[in-house]
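Example 3.2
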Amino acid sequence: MLQVLDILKVAHRGGIEPSMELLFEKGQQIPGSIQYNIRRYYAQHPWVAEDTGMLVYHYDSRKPKENYLELRYCSTGNRYCEEKSCSLCTKLPTENCGGRHQTVDVFTFHFTATFLHQFVHNIKLNTRKDEVLAFKHPHAFTKIFPVCNKKRNVLDGLLNHSYSGALENIFVNAKIHELLLYSLECLVEDKEEGFSCKFLADESGRERIYQARDILLQHIGDPITIKELSRKVAMNECYVKKGFKEVFGTTIFDFYQQQRMEHAKYLLYEKGLTVTDVSALLGYSSISHFSAAFKKHTGLKPCELLK
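Structure, written as tokens:
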């Protein structure tokens, strides 16, 4: 039987094993954005294996444009049913239903050096994580790590959500950024660390920070101030800012801009909307302001993504 590590090693090539039946596949290949692929395979035999992740840092000083960071995950023991309306059913298969299949789920997330530059272009590189994001670490490497509860919750969310269309794009992008943050933590220590902000030790405090993130995503085209955001989650502005930075590894403003521009790529490339339409949908007062923000974030002009 193919082992989990073997699956992770070949995941980026898109093939696993002829005897494994592909049940479901979803991906994104937008230029200048996150490239990802999610595949669910039918596990024909019971699997007894721990969920495993792999971080691949590809570095070649002679070909900087080809440098990339890739996250791969293999999760086993999940259940899948093609009929969404009965996905919570616990009954045995009937003549009209094959029942829920045990699956092997394989995730691949590909980040180019150009895409990751947005996170490090204005900071001092003090840690190994910073060096990896900036592609200043001089040696390629591969890191294997277990899948902790935080990562597993993100992966489950990517598999089991009810969003579609533009809302799905917003949700998936946010989840992948969250997964990138948690995976980079493994470069320092594999175990989950506590929070330095005391109010995050309380589950209700963490829930408010996640609620703040969700509200920001709901306002992609309707900018909201931090004061309004703090009122909506009933938390002090200072706590919201500090808690958000600790939980998501970025400021509220940077996170919001990041998500707006990633959604702009989707609207331009996948939906074929005009620059004028996208600018209006994202709440910009002028096309020039939107174009400048897009170029600063992506290194591309909006028109370069139009098909």
